[in-house]
Amino acid sequence: MSSATLAHIPAGNATVEGMLDIPDGAVGLVLFAHGSGSSRHSPRNNYVAGVLRDAGVGTLLMDLLTPEEDRDYSRRFDIGLLTQRLLDAARWVGAQDTTRALPLGFFGASTGAAAALEAAAALGEAARAVVSRGGRPDLASELALQEVGAPTLLLVGGYDDGVIDLNQLAYDQLRCEKEMVIVPGATHLFEEPGALEAVAMRAAGWFAEHLPRR
């Protein structure tokens, strides 16, 4: 069983909202970094989050931008700002009684994948696993990509041609344990029958393997 609670996360001069849901006996907690123009209400990420919770992984789906910030389109590609918001969230969960002991992972989509990798690089050993779904990990700095220590899984649709190449560029720079999986027949949003389910199961397996403390 788990129960979702609305979280108010201090982020510099702003406060962002998130939905925190921790199943009983959780092996870890995954922070979701949504893509450009998306929020904690993203149906795709909510579906993936549900599969993660079924696998015993807690989830925090949060808005990386305030409603005012999101109206400025360029903010959606401000990887530095998105990264800082993830780090603010990591600090917040690290201060809560219910979450401070849980190993931390990141799930990034679109531009959120770059922010997830930047945050993982900044957190070092405190970040245990990263998964990217149709992401733009290439937007993370070369230094961050080389400093990520958390095992990283890149999931890309087989018909997402340009993004496959960009993921390969980032993959080649990663020095951590890593895997890149092409999901056959899937486009960028994984809207094809069975595509999102395949992503969710791969992500759940990755986090279940790498989050628990050894």
Number of helices: 7
Mean of all residue-level pLDDT scores: 93
Low-pLDDT windows of residues: none
| Secondary-structure element series | EEEHEHHEHEHEHEH
How would you summarize this macromolecular structure in one to three sentences?
It contains seven helices and eight strands.
Question: Which secondary structure elements does this structure contain, and how are they paired or packed?
Answer:
Elements: E1 4-11, E2 14-21, E3 28-33, H1 43-54, E4 57-62, H2 67-70, H3 79-93, E5 104-109, H4 111-123, E6 127-133, H5 142-147, E7 152-157, H6 161-173, E8 178-183, H7 195-210
Parallel strand pairs: 3-4, 3-5, 5-6, 6-7, 7-8
Antiparallel strand pairs: 1-2, 2-4
Your description of this structure?
This protein is 37% helix and 25% strand. It is built from 7 helices and 8 strands; from the N terminus they run βββαβααβαβαβαβα. Strands 1-2-4-3-5-6-7-8 form an 8-stranded mixed sheet, sandwiched between helices. β3, α1 and β4 form a beta-alpha-beta unit. The longest helix has 16 residues, at 195-210. The radius of gyration is 15 Å and the shape is globular. The model has no long low-confidence stretch (mean pLDDT 93).
